[in-house]
Structure formats: structure tokens, C-alpha cells
Design the sequence.
């Protein structure tokens, strides 16, 4: 069963690890979900996958409690990253690689526990320009799999992406389909 999504877990990185459990996919089907879940303080789970699907569970480690919902609006594109607003725990945010083979990032948010999602389709959460530590800049033609790095209080410090440099934009033109991990500091006080 290629590309199915499985879950394993452990209380310690050294193990022991649980047996792999198949994560239910509902109507999504049998391909890679790109599931990006978070575990809430009550032990429940919410996760965004490839649009328009969202996962919920009353107990994150009990796959029998998982449900998959198809929503009108979730993230744009693929590779979602879900996080809780550091100023208001009732607000969820999702970042995604919003544009097929380009560098745009999408941002959605929910103020009702993920029942509905809002988006500004005309505003990118990140673009193609990256600033390096020496102050120089570069252009990235592909910037996918966004993740945030947080401080101990939950404030975002940096954005990471799988990235490719110009002119590599599509596997037909970049047969090795390589990428590197970029880390860019976010605006901070």
C-alpha cells in the first residue's frame, strides 16, 4: 500500500516505539495525505492535509476516533503546516506551499476550531526573495514544505522551506528535482 499515512509514537526518542498504525483517510482515498496535525492540550488532534481535507480525533493516539472532513476552504496548494496562534489559543493558522511549481506561500486561519477557514488569496505568506545572514538576497523559484521554528513561548522565530534556486522550477527542467532546506529569520522586535 504505497503512499499510505502511518503513525508511530513513543514517550522517548530512543523508544520503545508503538507499532505503525494506519491513519484513516476517509473520502480522501489512498494516496499521500500530507497530513499536518497538532495535538491540543486536551489530547485531541486536528490536522490539515491536502485540500480540502481536515482530520479530527478525540484522542490523538487512538485512530478509531479519527474523522476526515471535506471542507469548502482550507489551505491553498499542498504541504500544510498547522499551528496555534501564540496570542490567542482559539485561533489556528495554516501555512502551505500555495502554488504548484512556484515559490508562493499561502496562509489560512480559523477562529472556530477549524470548522471554517479564511484566506487572503491575493497576499502571499512568503515569496521568492530570501535574505541571507550576510544581508545579500537570492531568488528561490520553488519554496515548499513550510515549517515555523518557535521560541519557548510559542512565538515564530524563523521559516524553513524545501527550496530550489532560480531557474529550477519544474522536474522537467530540473531532472534531479533537488532541493535544500532554507531557514529565514522572521521579523522580530
Sequence:
Amino acid at each position: 500500500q504505497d503512499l499510505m499515512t502511518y503513525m508511530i509514537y513513543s514517550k522517548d526518542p530512543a523508544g520503545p516505539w508503538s507499532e505503525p498504525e494506519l491513519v484513516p483517510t476517509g473520502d480522501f482515498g489512498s494516496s499521500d495525505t500530507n497530513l499536518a496535525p497538532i495535538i491540543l492540550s486536551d489530547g485531541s488532534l486536528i490536522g490539515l492535509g491536502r485540500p480540502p481535507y481536515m482530520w479530527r480525533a478525540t484522542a490523538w493516539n487512538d485512530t478509531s476516533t479519527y474523522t476526515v472532513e471535506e471542507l469548502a476552504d482550507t489551505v491553498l496548494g499542498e504541504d500544510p503546516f498547522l499551528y496555534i496562534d501564540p496570542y490567542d489559543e482559539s485561533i489556528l493558522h495554516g501555512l502551505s506551499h500555495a502554488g504548484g511549481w512556484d515559490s508562493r506561500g499561502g496562509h489560512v486561519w480559523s477562529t472556530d476550531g477549524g470548522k471554517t477557514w479564511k484566506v487572503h488569496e491575493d497576499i502571499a505568506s512568503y515569496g521568492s526573495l530570501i535574505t541571507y545572514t550576510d544581508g545579500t538576497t537570492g531568488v528561490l523559484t520553488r519554496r515548499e514544505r513550510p515549517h515555523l521554528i518557535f521560541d519557548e513561548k510559542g512565538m515564530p522565530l524563523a521559516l524553513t522551506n524545501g527550496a530550489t534556486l532560480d531557474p529550477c522550477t519544474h522536474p522537467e527542467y530540473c531532472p534531479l528535482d533537488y532541493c535544500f532546506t532554507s531557514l529565514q529569520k522572521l521579523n522580530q522586535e
In short: The first strand starts at residue 6 and ends at 7. The chain has a mean pLDDT of 86. DSSP finds no helices and 14 strands in the chain.
